[in-house]
Amino acid sequence: MCSVDSERLHAMQIGLIGLGKMGFNMRERLRRSGTEVLGYDPHVNSSDVSSIDALVEALPPPRIVWVMVPAGAPTQETITHLSQALSPGDLVIEGGNSRFSEDIHHAKALDARGIGYIDCGVSGGIWGLENGYALMVGGSEEHVDRAMPLFDALRPEGPRSEGFVHAGPIGAGHYSKMVHNGIEYGLMQAYAEGFELLEATKLVENVPAVIEAWSRGTVVRSWLLDLLVRALKDDPELSGISGWTQDSGEGRWTVEEAIRNAVPVPVISAALFARFASRQETSPSMKAVSALRNQFGGHSTSRADAALDQVKAAAR
């Protein structure tokens, strides 16, 4: 665990709403650092309290509540509920994958009741519990400083600048995470297309071994490549994985922002469109992308027969 302000951290008690793949492990990492965390999620059995109201009531003011629920309506409903349940001086940290433009509305609704707001893009997937999370935050200096012991506990070991950034005012954190995920789309697509080309030739006899050989000493080595190596060890031909690949929104938003700012992003755009194409027919490269998403984030992979059923249903 990285160096943190132990005195401030051990005095903190926070609430965490959302105990899915990310939230559950974040609660555990914070607890290991000495923070007392009360978690709530209506969809799991690991909640510490029975409701959002019970969570707020159990926390001593001034409170900090971290929200880790799916973007869109679930986040909006949670923020609306908190705006009524919390008190002036409390602070909400929104750590899901919300669109940056939504942060302005959340912050205004909370500010009207004297409640602070930070948007926090979180990267690290299912590996964050042990390795730490990269955190990109937006908000005021006052609010970020107040929450800094939490950020220090969650980020990877090492210099704060390597794993944490106060990117700017409200919205800057999620904007940074959006661009991060757009780049991620492009990187995964490049690895996936290389995998498909190796699979297509009869000249290369051991494709998984070639991919693994790239993982040390080459300019294309990365954690994503390590995860592809791991996926190929589990299933050398990815035969049990459908090429059907979902997109969670950030890639679309990145391309939309690129259009709005007249910034060319041909690689990210092509990677996004490749995911759309994956839903029309099975593709070896999209199987690799699907496998990578499962490895780093625990995202579900559709089996081949299930994907075919989805295609048929969409055509009806």
Automatic annotation (TrEMBL):
One Pfam family, short name: 6PGD
GO BP: any one term: D-gluconate metabolic process
Keywords: Gluconate utilization, Oxidoreductase
Originating organism: Rhodococcus opacus
InterPro entries associated with the record: 6-PGluconate_DH-like_C_sf, 6DGDH_YqeC, 6PGD_dom2, 6PGDH_C, 6PGDH_NADP-bd, NAD(P)-bd_dom_sf, Pgluconate_DH
Similarity field: Belongs to the 6-phosphogluconate dehydrogenase family.
Annotated PANTHER family: 6-PHOSPHOGLUCONATE DEHYDROGENASE
GO molecular function: NADP binding; phosphogluconate dehydrogenase (decarboxylating) activity
6-phosphogluconate dehydrogenase C-terminal domain boundaries: 173-307
Protein name per Swiss-Prot or TrEMBL: Decarboxylating 6-phosphogluconate dehydrogenase
